[in-house]
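Consider the following assembly input.
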Amino acid sequence: METNQLIETIAPVVASNQLLEHWQGHRKLTRKVIEIFPDDKFFSYSIGGMRPFCELVMEMIDLADGGVEGIATGNWKSGDNFGHVNGNLPKTKEEMLHVWDQVTIKINEFWPQITAERFQQVEKAFGAYEGANYSTLLYIIDNEIHHRGQGYVYLRSLGVTPPPFWERC
Amino acid sequence: METNQLIETIAPVVASNQLLEHWQGHRKLTRKVIEIFPDDKFFSYSIGGMRPFCELVMEMIDLADGGVEGIATGNWKSGDNFGHVNGNLPKTKEEMLHVWDQVTIKINEFWPQITAERFQQVEKAFGAYEGANYSTLLYIIDNEIHHRGQGYVYLRSLGVTPPPFWERC
């Protein structure tokens, strides 16, 4: 079935501008979780042998950064340069927030280029993971929610109250 | 702007059947996390004063059960009857998995009734939370990912390896 046929015959769930707002809302919440995280614990605190929150945040940044560009343009960077893979992370929380904000701008810049056809195009994301681009995009958003939820447990165990899950502004 | 205009002029991201597969994939993963959770810890284990995993799972069940029916039909049950609110939970993990599987069937039954217009319709979800139905649906899926991610930390701290995040079959 052709892409346009697929979309016309089966109900679309969410429009491009709506999902952008949804994602950026999630990113605002994640940014708050980074801000509230105790500075020293951000780079070191762990439960059950899991990665510290800084590495989980770096993963979110790497996937969002390379992901939005790949989905928009078809130019997929390899994951070899991922900071969360090669350990090349910002050294302070402030620097991490700066990189976070740069990616927020990049998402808004690349997003309007993504057509209905691009969302449905099957590609090897990051040169490795084959799937429709909408599926890769949902994976990137879901992965942020998954790891941020883990950050909530880190915070609770440190006696810090995280922002409400429904707060996206 | 009318619903149809909106969808026709702005790129749709994902079709109804694709999001159903995506959600049910997530639910398969969550089911595995419930299965692997040590039986006694499922109802009692907590980190940082958070709710035990049984209550988080009950919340997922309540939202999915009432949510898919509300989005499909416009008949929203009040949250007063939610098991995770009034403490009316299954007493064993096996019973919880049985309820989980009933909701899986219910989602598949109600889903085909949800039209593009229903996804965009603004309603008071569960009689309380106003928003477009697609947004409520994404909230329900995101909430499951969020709390399941917390379950991963519970498991890791108990020395149990959770299933890979990308495993959805």
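The two ends of chain A are 39 Å apart (CA to CA). Ask yourself how this observation constrains the way the partners meet.
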